């Protein structure tokens, strides 16, 4: 059976790096760089998800507006229609969503509250562990 988001969060933790909508792109870039992450979740009232700003959005903004974009608030550069997943979402479902929608980050929500984030790196790590476990099980079965 495929692992779930819950299993990933139990291992990596539930901390999510967030920022407010008025954060500038330059400030967000510093957060992405210092925290060594690819995405920051933009939150509004009561910590609700308002958008997501990733390194891809930064590259697109620089290409479109030049360095002046660094002073723009992320609200004008982020993606507002954010796809989310839940703790019971499976790793197979994550792979399907990330591949078909072409993004590498999925915030995790429980009852409308942000409770974690999974990245494509987490998915690959979990999938490798699954494949290794399946291989060991098959070897043990053959041996007997
Ligand atoms: P990424 O591959 O995660 O760097 O993101 C590629 C593009 O998809 C960027 O424009 C992001 O803002 C957007 N994006 C990333 N994650 C999500 C998500 N969960 N829902 C909607 N858009 C997203």
Automatic annotation (TrEMBL):
PROSITE patterns per record = CBS
> Mind telling me which InterPro entries this protein's record contains?
CBS_dom, CBS_dom_sf, CBSX3_CBS_dom, Diverse_CBS-Domain
What keywords were assigned to this record?
CBS domain
Q: Which Pfam family, just one, is annotated for this protein?
A: CBS
What's the superkingdom here?
A: Bacteria
Q: Does the keyword Chloroplast apply?
A: no
Q: Would the keyword Thylakoid turn up in this protein's UniProt record?
A: no
Q: What is this protein called?
A: CBS domain-containing protein
Q: Where is the CBS domain?
A: 12-69, 78-135
Alphabetized CDD domains for the sequence: CBS_pair_bac_euk
């Amino acid at each position: 059976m495929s692992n779930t988001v819950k299993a990933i969060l139990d291992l990596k933790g539930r901390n999510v790096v967030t920022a407010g909508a008025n954060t500038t792109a330059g400030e967000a870039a510093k957060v992405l760089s210092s925290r060594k992450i690819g995405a920051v979740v933009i939150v509004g009232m009561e910590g609700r998800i308002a958008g997501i700003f990733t390194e891809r959005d930064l590259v697109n903004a620089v290409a479109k507006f030049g360095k002046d974009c660094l002073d723009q608030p992320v609200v004008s550069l982020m993606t507002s229609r954010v796809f989310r997943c839940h703790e019971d979402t499976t790793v197979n479902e994550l792979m399907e969503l990330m591949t078909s929608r072409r993004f590498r980050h999925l915030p995790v929500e429980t009852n409308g509250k942000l409770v974690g984030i999974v990245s494509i790196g987490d998915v690959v790590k979990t999938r490798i562990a699954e494949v290794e476990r399946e291989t060991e099980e098959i070897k043990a079965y053959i041996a007997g």
